[in-house]
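Hi F.,

I've been meaning to write this up properly since the lab meeting, where we talked about keeping a consistent format for the predictions we share between groups. The idea is simple: the sequence comes first, exactly as it goes in, then the structure tokens exactly as they come out, then a line or two of notes. No screenshots and no reformatting. I'm using this chain as the first example so we have something concrete to point to.
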Amino acid sequence: MEPRESEPKKAGGEVTIRAGLARGWLQELANRLAPLLALLALGLFLTLKSPFFATRRNLLTVALQVAPLAIVAMGQTFVIIAGGIDLSVGSVLALSGVVAGLMMTQEVVPLLRSPWSAGLMGAATGGLCGVFNGLVTTRAKMPPFIVTLGMMGIARGLALLLTGGNPIFDLPDSFFTLAQGYLWRIPIPVVLMFALAGLLHFVLAQTRFGRAAYAIGGNYQAARLSGLRVDRYLVSFFGLCGLLTGFAGVVQAARLISAQPATGEMAELDAIAAAVIGGASLLGGQGSIPGTIIGIFIMALLRNGCNLLGVDPYWQQVAIGTMIILAVLYDHLRRRRRR
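Output, unedited:
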């Protein structure tokens, strides 16, 4: 008789497990779709409220304005998923643009005066700043918050010292093609943004490099004990973030037709906000490139909508700050529910 009684119990247990797995899968799907649904809802609201919103010109303008910041935010996503944070990206963006501008206008190294060489130098400057952040964080065992906060001041100070606080003009016309040219009737920065998004999504989702970011951010000690070279990966993530930020600084200089030492202010807030609104966790181990792109466009449409509807621009920062708090609170409540 005992086996007959245990069979229904076993069957009932399997049903309970399957139901739990189904609920978990649905919850995860809802979490992934939430940012996209929010973006679609915001777009629909603005379409109904303003006849100027859903036009090709306006949408391309929004995408063009957000492209450099989106490139920065994608690099920030790797760092956040790995459990870190980079507060220096705004200053590094300015320094990289300044370096590229100086290479093109000063007789420093004649061979580096071409836009291509200067652009590479600007991107490399960002990469070196990122590697420095990673090395100090891992070797000195210092919190990335403090290290990158220091780099924020260093990079901004260098940008102002190199230029005397003045913008760099008289850049070659061929340099502006990077930001003002078109490819298939789409601005080149927008094409670059989506091309990088596709490439980085593949790296994050399908390669060992990307899986290491999730492993380190999810459980640092477990990743280290499993044989991952955690410090080397962390330096690489910070270096990648710096390299992308440097490239974004070059694109921004081309877009502004000048290298501005004061550009990039508050870019770190927007980059972090984009990743968090897109589903990344500030505790690490969670996030995605598509989510970050959605997050950056949510903020861009919010600002664009406020301008079209005549809302006081100061309310934009209030709204974005509120969205960050709500996104972090939602992540906190979700993690607590899983325990």
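Notes:
The radius of gyration is 23 Å.
The mean pLDDT is 87.

If this format works for you, I'll send the rest the same way.

G.
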